[in-house]
Amino acid sequence: MTAGWRKKAKGMVLLAFLLACLLLLSGCWNYKELTDINVVVGVGLDRTEEGKVLLTVQVAEPGSIQSTSGHGSGGEGPTKPVFVVSHEGETIFGAIREMLATVDKKLFFSTVQVLILSERLARESLEESLDFFQRDHEVDYLMNVLVAKDVSPAEILAMESDMDTIPAVYISETVENTSYRGTGKKTMLIDVIKDMDCKGKQPVIGQITKAGENMVRTEGLAVFKEGKLVGWLDPYETRGYQFAMNDIGSAIVNIPAEEGKMSMEVFRSKAKIGVEFEDGEPACLMVKVRLEANVGGHEGKGKLDAPEKISALEEILEETIRKEIAMALEKAQDEYSSDIFGFGMEVHKYHPQYWKKAQDEWDRIFSRLPADIQVDAKIRRTGIIINPVIKEH
């Protein structure tokens, strides 16, 4: 999986670069020579102590993009894959233009893989942070957006990853992997823009932290309210959120087993949320999840040779996932008072008259409502063995 995503991500950078070449050679009025651009693959935004914007860009050398994609010629000498440069400015647009005083070519943003926001900037205003990226015609709306926790965007972009010659591609791959496992979320720029303009749902953005000298971790979520960062969800809370949002493609959920533990591979999950009304007022938040899983690993005692044992495991799996959903929901209600699930959208859709009078107070109303979380799990396969590897004594 990782190798496939690496090849795909590098291919996307190379394809975007080649398309840029075609545009640059098409004879348009704003024609630029190919040698006049810097291929930007990663962007970081931060706020300085003085209140200025700190812009950091990671630029890939075209030759390294080609060679790492498997198309380079063997006779060329080694080149540094990327370089990173930062610049302060009063605004993002101003910092980009002023950066040209320190870099030799125009910055080309259509190839950006990741946009990383600092915690300080995100707590001030998400809308202001993304304004330039909504307006500029070169920006790719499919770029990944992340919020850095306990580390600056500049530190992350300056890392020399052991996993990939282009660090921004490595970061993109980790986002894909954690999203696939449910402990993270792939948040593209277009998704964030839609959520910022959505009535009844607050935005969430993927989280990024350092996991070592040359490694990152993209598990967890940044929670927003009214355009400002208010807190975080940990990986388990994130998975609970993803289950409730019908956004789980696959996940490994560990549950307790007889004197050990068992890994359940969730391979199909469907979820629906809603708001139950009584006497014209919201009375309860509803979350219903149906999922199918296989036994992926069994480290413990006991045989899986009876229907009642499978049924007991299904109940444990249901309770484990129900607990993770409840953790995410309680945090959104009690700590952040932010409807990141979109229950307000359901009210807007099915109870428009109530929504008209309650929309400005919805987050407060959402925070006090009880929740009914229902999880129905079915275990389809237990594998080709009945007995666990660990023998009973």
Automatic annotation (TrEMBL):
Keyword vocabulary terms for this entry: Germination, Lipoprotein, Membrane, Palmitate, Signal
Subcellular location as annotated: Membrane
GO CC, sorted alphabetically, is:
membrane
* InterPro entries with a match to the protein in the record: GerAC_N (IPR057336), Spore_GerAC-like (IPR008844), Spore_GerAC-like_C (IPR046953), Spore_GerAC_C_sf (IPR038501)
Query: Which ranges carry the Spore germination GerAC-like C-terminal domain?
Result: 219-383
Listed under GO biological process in this entry are:
spore germination
Report the membrane topology from the UniProt record. Answer: Lipid-anchor
- Keyword check for Membrane: yes
Q: Which Pfam families match?
A: Spore_GerAC, Spore_GerAC_N
> Domain Spore germination protein N-terminal, which positions?
30-209
Give the family from UniProt: Belongs to the GerABKC lipoprotein family.
PANTHER family to which the protein is assigned, alphabetical: SPORE GERMINATION PROTEIN B3 (PTHR35789:SF1)
**UniProt-recorded name of the protein:** Spore germination protein KC
